């Protein structure tokens, strides 16, 4: 059984990590159910295990937290929904690639309910919105805007961290980093694309789409 918990207000990042790690340890120990925790943070940057110092363009703009999740630099802040996903892959299959793909597909399914056609891209973790209205990159690659990031960590095959979906954050806050180390592509949000969605509506869409990828 997966427990859904919604945080209230802006939750400090260190507090969230401590709570998430405690819950993951309890899941691994068989004393707690799996969980999805929906939160928002104050503005901050996090650095994953593959983060490059050169991709932090403005270290003084917001607090920077090193984290042991996979990936590079990303931004979290108000108007962005984070779903910390604590699932036991001992029971769900110890396949990290499949798990990450399922997280991406889960977000794509949820966004489709708002009429947004988002996609996965080979070699680029996350969820993307094609931008055929913009010229391609110099190498001919079509332009995309990122609408959701994925970064996970496994401890005793229980997942930590998860996904972040841009509802209506200040997209200018991404200017202090190279998001996920990927240059040339942009960042977008539901509201920036003209989808007037509330956080509660996004939460309901995420919960409704979850079983299709991870079971009830």
Reconstruct the topology from this structure.
Elements: E1 2-10, H1 13-28, E2 34-40, E3 44-47, E4 64-66, E5 73-76, E6 80-86, H2 89-92, H3 96-112, E7 119-121, E8 124-130, E9 144-155, E10 158-166, E11 186-187, H4 199-214
Helix pairs in contact: 3-4
Offer a few descriptive terms.
216 residues; alpha/beta
Please give a structural write-up.
There is one protein chain. The longest helix is centred in the middle third of the chain and has 17 residues, at 96-112. Helix 3 crosses helix 4. With 216 residues, the chain is of the alpha/beta class. Strands 1, 2, 6, 7, 8, 9, 10 and 11 form an eight-stranded mixed β-sheet that branches. It has helices at residues 13-28, 89-92, 96-112, 199-214; strands at 2-10, 34-40, 44-47, 64-66, 73-76, 80-86, 119-121, 124-130, 144-155, 158-166, 186-187. The protein contains four helices and eleven strands; from the N terminus they run E-H-E-E-E-E-E-H-H-E-E-E-E-E-H. The mean pLDDT is 95. The relative contact order is 0.20.
What is the structure about, briefly put?
The chain has four helices and eleven strands. The protein is of the alpha/beta class and 216 residues long.
Helix content class:
10-25%
The count of β-strands is 11
Q: Structural class, from secondary structure content?
A: alpha/beta
Largest sheet features:
8 strands, mixed
Question: What best-fitting shape do the alpha-carbon axes yield?
Answer: globular
Q: Which stretches of 5+ consecutive residues score pLDDT under 50? A: none
- Give helix and strand order, one letter per element, not per position: EHEEEEEHHEEEEEH
Rg measurement, Å: 16 Å
Number of helices: 4
Beta-strand content: 25-35%
